[in-house]
Design goal:
heterodimer, A: alpha/beta, six-stranded mixed sheet, four-stranded antiparallel sheet, 10 strands, 38% helix, B: mainly alpha, 8 helices, binds adenosine-5'-triphosphate, binds magnesium ion
């Protein structure tokens, strides 16, 4: 589904990602973890071209995003993204947040889009909020709407950048539950997270980044119980 | 105290007519300024460098020199350079329109840039094209930042409009001066038009507040 080869990203002279090579298979759930500033967000954003890689290739669904003939907009339609701070459209209702892109980008009819949106809202447990504006929702509700908004485009792949980091502790679970549900349904997911519990429980694979380098990757059980590298051991000691 | 308002009574219709004369050119200046200002703002946030430079230079010149000078230059230099005898009315619209477009472009640019960057990223991540993103997502939110400042600009323009009296345009201000020299008393007519200016500004302020309240409701 996603193939990343020798990916480099520089901001000016600051080399944030160094020679990252990895792969995410269809239906796989990958957790990306690492210290603050290690390049996790940047890596994720290179997967849908919110950041343009300095060097290297990113191939999604057989299409080379870094190649010369790329239609970034087209490719993004198949990649959903969920942000730490939700970024719901504040001037649109919850339902409109979900229907806007399918109607505008995919040309769906209003009725079709609304019907699908209502199903998605039901799935994330917010059916009764369709007429509400984002400002009246709690953080956990906002994030569930944001997930539903991304799903409304029927993506093949979902990217999550610390989806629970901006939430009050009591709201973390409701969002993680939606994500677990999504993982069970077979969605391909790349999740940057500080929730080690989620990584251990739900992920098929863990990628550990440090200072822009992919230091270690492996199955959660192996990674958490017996990390192979010094840096991963240090990191896990601090967070667990 | 030697105040006598009864003497200006016969001149009141003459002075009231000035409201219309002032509003007429202010109205056209605002239209011109808004259109030009929007175009300049798009230049400023766009990625085409020469257009950006042009818009920045334009803004710098019109904000960096006195409005009365710009007015005089337009009124006196156009006949001298082109032979076209430009009317005070047209000169006033041009000077105020060009001048306010510089300020309005800054207001719009700042309003757009104040919209959370995440909004743009969220739209991009959904595959929304640039134009649709601007008109459906960014501009409606920017409007909330823009409208109050824009209202202020219109109020300033209305007040500053009095300087067109210097090129002989028969606006409110000029009419007060005419009446003053007719009567050999300046204070009363000046006070009278002062009151009118104040009412105009208050009117604009009330309209602005109404707009703002409307916008807040949609939150
Ligand atoms: N747009 C940008 N311009 C310049 N530098 C940037 C930009 N975005 C990120 N960086 C830098 O890149 C480095 C990695 O940032 P990134 O946000 O990817 O880290 P992260 O692992 O997601 O950290 P966190 O856990 O704090 O979110 C940081 O040093 C950051 O300052
Ligand atoms: Mg980050």
């Amino acid at each position: 589904m996603i193939k990343v080869e020798h990916l480099y990203k520089k901001f000016g002279t600051n080399e944030v990602l160094k020679d990252i090579t990895t792969e995410i298979k269809k239906g796989e759930v990958v957790s990306i973890i690492g210290p603050s500033g290690s390049g996790k967000s940047t890596f994720l954003r290179c997967l849908n071209m919110l950041e343009i890689p300095t060097y290297g290739t990113v191939v999604v669904n057989g299409q080379d995003l870094t190649g010369p003939k790329k239609d970034v907009q087209k490719i993004r339609q198949h990649i959903g993204m969920v942000f730490q701070h939700f970024h719901l459209f504040p001037h649109l209702t919850v339902l409109e947040n979900l229907t806007y892109a399918p109607m505008k980008v995919k040309g769906e009819k209003k009725e079709t889009a609304q019907e699908k949106a209502r199903l998605l809202l039901k799935r994330v447990g917010l059916a009764e909020k369709e007429k509400a504006y984002p400002s009246s929702l709690s953080g956990g509700q906002k994030q569930r709407v944001a997930i539903a908004r991304a799903l409304a485009m029927e993506p093949d792949l979902m990217l999550f950048d610390e989806p629970t980091s901006a939430l009050d502790p009591e709201m973390v679970k409701e969002v993680l539950d939606v994500m677990k549900d999504l993982a069970k349904s077979g969605m391909t997911m790349a999740v940057v997270t500080h929730e080690m519990g989620f990584a251990r429980e739900v992920a098929d694979r863990v990628i550990f980044l440090d200072h822009g380098v992919l230091v270690e990757e492996g199955q959660p059980a192996a990674f958490f119980n017996s990390p192979q590298t010094e840096r991963a051991r240090d990191f896990l000691e601090k967070v667990l | 105290m030697n105040l006598d308002f009864s003497q200006i009574v016969p001149y009141i219709p003459f002075m009231l007519e000035g409201i219309w004369v002032t509003l007429k050119f202010v109205f056209f200046a605002i239209i011109l300024g808004s259109i030009l200002g929007t175009v300049l703002a798009l230049f400023k946030i766009g990625s085409i460098k020469p257009l950006r430079w042009f818009a920045d230079a334009y803004t710098s010149i019109f904000r960096g020199t006195p409005l009365i000078l710009q007015l005089m230059i337009i009124y006196y230099s156009i006949p001298q350079l082109t032979g076209y005898d430009i009317s005070p009315f047209l000169s006033a619209i041009l000077a105020f329109g060009l001048n306010s477009s510089a300020y309005i472009s800054e207001i719009i640019r700042a309003g757009i840039q104040a919209v959370d960057k995440g909004q743009m990223e969220a739209a991009q991540a959904l595959g929304v094209p640039y134009r649709a993103m601007m008109t459906d997502i960014i501009l409606p939110q920017a409007l909330k930042n823009i409208l109050p400042a824009l209202m202020n600009e219109f109020i300033t323009l209305t007040k500053e409009s009095a300087i067109v009296s210097t090129i002989g345009y028969l606006d409110l201000m000029r009419r007060a001066q005419v009446v003053g020299s007719d009567l050999f008393r300046n204070f009363e007519p000046l006070l009278f038009v002062g009151l009118i200016y104040w009412c105009l500004v208050m009117g604009l302020t009330v309209i602005g507040r109404m707009f703002e309240r409307r916008l807040k409701q949609s939150d």
